[in-house]
């Protein structure tokens, strides 16, 4: 995972499903190839990575799977909410679950949205465009 010298066009994705990673990455690439999507496969490593980087390396957007190993997406957001330096970065939870309880819990923590993962290729592009709409230009 080489990140040195990246611009503010970084999206950090907490996702352990390789297919979902690749589908989202391809959709974002089609929309705007200047974005760099970096995938971290579990919540604990996601938090450790964020704690290890400087202000100039912070991502423009964080996308977190609700059910990732070690720390869930919601648990990651709770930890990040305790650190002010992440407060201006939009965070999105996405999941295969359509649970209104999961959605309410996520929104309550201040995420921009809780999105159900698309089930077809065409919808990944629409979802990716919607996610990118939360980034300050």
From TrEMBL:
**Where, per the database record, does this protein carry 4-aspartylphosphate?**
65
Source species, domain of life: Bacteria
What range(s) does the Response regulatory domain occupy? 10-132
**SUPFAM superfamilies per UniProt:** CheY-like
Kindly indicate where the leader peptide sits in this chain: none
Alphabetized, the UniProt keywords read:
Phosphoprotein
Sorted alphabetically, the Gene Ontology BP terms of this entry are:
phosphorelay signal transduction system
Q: What is this protein called?
A: CheY-like chemotaxis protein
Q: To which species is this protein native?
A: Chitinophaga ginsengisoli
């Amino acid at each position: 995972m080489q990140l040195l010298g990246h611009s503010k066009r970084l999206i950090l994705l907490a996702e352990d499903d390789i297919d979902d990673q690749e589908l989202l990455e391809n959709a974002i690439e089609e929309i705007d190839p200047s974005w760099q999507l970096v995938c971290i496969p579990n919540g604990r490593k996601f938090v450790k990575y964020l704690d290890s980087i400087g202000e100039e390396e912070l991502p423009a957007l964080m996308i977190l799977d609700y059910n990732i190993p070690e720390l869930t997406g919601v648990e990651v957001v709770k930890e990040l909410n305790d650190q002010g330096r992440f407060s201006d970065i939009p965070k999105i939870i996405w999941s295969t679950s359509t649970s209104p309880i999961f959605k309410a819990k996520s929104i309550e923590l201040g995420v921009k949205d809780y999105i159900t993962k698309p089930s077809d290729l065409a919808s990944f592009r629409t979802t990716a465009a919607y996610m990118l709409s939360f980034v300050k230009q």
